[in-house]
What does this fold into?
Amino acid sequence: MSIRRSRTVSRASGLEHAIQRPGLSFRALGVLAFMLSQPARNSFSVSDLVEFSSASRRRDGRDSIYSTITELVDAGYIVRRQLRDESGQMEGVEHEVFSAPQAGGAW
It folds into this structure.
């Protein structure tokens, strides 16, 4: 799985929309802040997020990261796309991260 930040987000102010909207858990805000702080077009995996959290006092596991990503998808901050190869077979999933909710989110 790859996760990349949208190209329209400035690194200094990427969270202004998320913080002003109630409803996201603090965990989701933290994961969103981490993803938005990465360089544009940076790709990383859930295992990268789990590894990053290993330095914290309370390590987050794979299921915790997946449920947080699902919360952000439901809220519209992450758009999930199913990738397919030339023959139509599923090839993976791509997630694009935005600083503001996108159409189709729960907001």
Strands lie at 2-5, 78-84, 90-97. The helical segments are 16-20, 26-37, 46-53, 62-75.
